[in-house]
């Protein structure tokens, strides 16, 4: 039968002395700590993961795209002659811009403002919206069933499209023209009135969230030297605008639907 090994009191006192000495050193280094705090072992805080989805990730990507430095426009070749690029257009308008309302609506509801009842409520929500008006790149036509407001990222997208369109015009040998914006933010009241005259108008329109605007593809505004303007129908301009929108869509900045009956491109920011 094995004998139990007795604990040596000297060993116990030695271990106790080491612990006391260690606590004394820590206490000297941190005078504000109490003994319970010295003896308490803190468990590491649990890692909190921030949930992300495709819409959030894409909006972050778009933000970085719009913040990047613009590439200087090259108007002259190395030999000093003007740059004149070809008009290439897109393969087919319907297949190049197929983004249906249901696809655009999901993003619009996430990154836009909540639906607005009427014009009075819209006036109270201006802190979340940007007023859009005529500028060097686009003109807002007289609106009957919408009001000229967009969320900031959609307003920035509209200006970016207008700038890119005019850059493309110049490098293809055309004079600058303004785009015509034909529809912007719609209140619930606007949607109801529009459906009274156009039964094909969607009750769940993306225009209700301030993320969406329409640009005419067969009417463009020419600014004359005397300051006057006139609407022009130029087939090549539709193709050039389509090139610009395809580039934006491929970068992921927007959804685009080619509207045959309304003669416009229906665009939702991402």
Q: How would you describe this structure to a colleague?
A:
The chain has 270 residues and is of the alpha+beta class. The chain has a domain at 98-269: Muramoyl-pentapeptide Carboxypeptidase, domain 2 (2-Layer Sandwich), CATH 3.30.1380. It is built from nine helices and nine strands. It has helices at residues 9-29, 35-39, 54-67, 93-96, 101-111, 119-124, 152-171, 188-197, 235-251, and strands at 130-131, 138-140, 149-150, 177-183, 212-216, 220-223, 229-232, 254-259, 264-269. Strands 2, 4, 5, 6, 7, 8 and 9 form a seven-stranded mixed β-sheet that branches. A two-stranded antiparallel sheet has the order 1-3. It is globular, with a radius of gyration of 32 Å. The mean pLDDT is 87.
Summarize the structure.
Helix content is 40%, strand content 14%. The protein is built from 9 helices and 9 strands. Helix 7 packs across helix 9.
């Amino acid at each position: 039968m094995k004998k139990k090994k007795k604990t040596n009191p000297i060993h116990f006192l030695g271990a106790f002395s080491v612990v006391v000495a260690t606590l004394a050193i820590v206490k000297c280094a941190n005078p504000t700590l109490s003994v319970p705090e010295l003896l308490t072992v803190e468990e590491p805080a649990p890692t909190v993961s921030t949930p992300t989805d495709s819409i959030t990730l894409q909006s972050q990507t778009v933000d970085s795209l719009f913040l990047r430095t613009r590439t200087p426009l090259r108007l002259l070749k190395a030999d000093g002659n003007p740059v004149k690029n070809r008009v290439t257009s897109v393969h087919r308008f319907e297949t190049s811009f197929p983004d249906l309302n249901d696809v655009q609506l999901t993003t619009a509801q996430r990154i836009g403002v909540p639906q607005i009842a009427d014009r009075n409520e819209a006036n109270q929500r201006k802190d979340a919206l940007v007023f859009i008006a005529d500028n060097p790149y686009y003109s807002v036509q007289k609106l009957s069933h919408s009001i000229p407001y967009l969320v900031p990222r959609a307003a920035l997208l509209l200006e970016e499209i207008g700038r890119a369109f005019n850059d493309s015009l110049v490098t293809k040998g055309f004079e600058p023209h303004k785009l015509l914006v034909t529809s912007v933010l719609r209140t619930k009241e606007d949607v109801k009135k529009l459906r009274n005259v156009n039964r094909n108008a969607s009750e769940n329109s993306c225009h209700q969230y301030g993320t969406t605007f329409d640009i005419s593809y067969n009417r463009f505004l020419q600014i004359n030297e005397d300051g006057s303007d006139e609407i022009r129908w130029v087939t090549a301009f539709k193709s050039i605008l389509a090139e610009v929108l395809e580039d934006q869509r491929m970068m992921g900045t927007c959804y685009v639907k080619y509207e045959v009956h309304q003669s416009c491109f229906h665009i939702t920011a991402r």
